[in-house]
Amino acid sequence: MYEWNQMVQLMVDWVESHITEPASLLKMSERLGYSPYYCSRQFNQLTGMTLRDYIWTRRISHAALELRDTDRRVLDIAVKYGFSSQEAFTRAFVKAFQLTPAAYRKAPRPIRLAIRQEVFSPYHYLIKERDRMSGVHLQPAEIKAERIPAHKFIGIWDITVQNFGDFWANGHNCDEICGTLDSMSNHTLPGQLGQTAGWFYRDGQKGYLYGIPVPPDYDGPIPEGMACREIPESEYLVFFHPPFDYLKDNGAVMSAVEEAAWSFDPQDMGYEWDEETKQDYQRHYPEGYGYAVLRPVRKRSDEV
C-alpha cells in the first residue's frame, strides 16, 4: 500500500537534486525499476500534473529566486536552468508570472512560485509500516525562553479553524499561498525561520494563522488575500524537540511537544501567558531545526 506514493516522492527528490541538468525520464525510471511510461503515468495520477510540467515549473521558480537574489546575467540563469536562449526564458517567465525577468529583477514583488510536491507523508509511512514500533527516537520536549523583537506578520488569520490540516481544507490554496510566500523569503525577519504557522485569539476564541514574520519597518507589497499586522516584542516560552525523522516520528514528536506546551504552567518560572495581543507560533522543519511551539509570556506582577 502507498508504494507509488513513495516512488513518486523519490522522483520529486530526483528532480530537485538534478534541477539544473537535462531531464532524463529514462535515468529516473531505471533507478526506480519501472518503465518510463509507467513512471510518468503514476506521477501524473498522484500530483495532477505531468512530470515535464512539474520540472518546468520548478526550474522557472528556482530561476526567479536567482534573479531576485544574485547579480548573474539573465542569459546565464536561463542557460543554467535549461532554456535555449534568453528569449525563450523570457517567454517562459512571462507565462509563469505575468512579467518579464528584467522587470522582476528591477522591482521584485510577490509571485506564485511552484512549491515542491509532497505525496508521501508520515501518514502514508505509518500505514505502510504499521507494525513498526513507534516513538523509538522520541525524547521529552525541552523548554527554554526566547525573546522575539517587534515585527510584522504577513499572512492569513482564520478564526474558524485551529490546526494545520483544517486550515488548508478550509478553502486556502496551499500551492498558491506557500509559493507566493516563498517569493518573499528575502524579507523574512532576521534570526527567524521562514514560513510559520501558529494560533491567535479573538474575543476568547482560538484561530489558526499562516504566513511569514518580517521586520517592523517592512513597507513592501502585501499579497492579495493576505494582511499585515504588527506584533509587539515579547518573550516566549519555547517547547522544542530537536531534529527528527519526518516520516517515522513526525506525529509522535508533534503530539509530545504540543501536549507539553498546552499543559504547562509558567508560574514556576515566574511568568504568565500573554496571548491577548500577541500570537503563538509553530516552527516545523524536522530534519534541520526540529519542531517547536512558542507561547508569549510576561513576568508576573508579583515577580517584578
From TrEMBL:
The terms under GO molecular function for this entry are:
DNA-binding transcription factor activity; sequence-specific DNA binding
How far does the signal peptide extend, from start to end residue?
none
Q: Which Pfam families match?
A: HTH_18 (PF12833)
The molecule here is called: Helix-turn-helix transcriptional regulator
HTH araC/xylS-type domain location = 9-107
Q: Which organism is it from?
A: Cohnella zeiphila
What keywords does the record list, in alphabetical order? DNA-binding, Transcription, Transcription regulation
* Matching InterPro entries: Homeodomain-like_sf, HTH_AraC, HTH_AraC-typ_CS, MarA-like, Tscrpt_reg_AraC-type_HTH
Lineage, please?
Answer: Bacteria, Bacillati, Bacillota, Bacilli, Bacillales
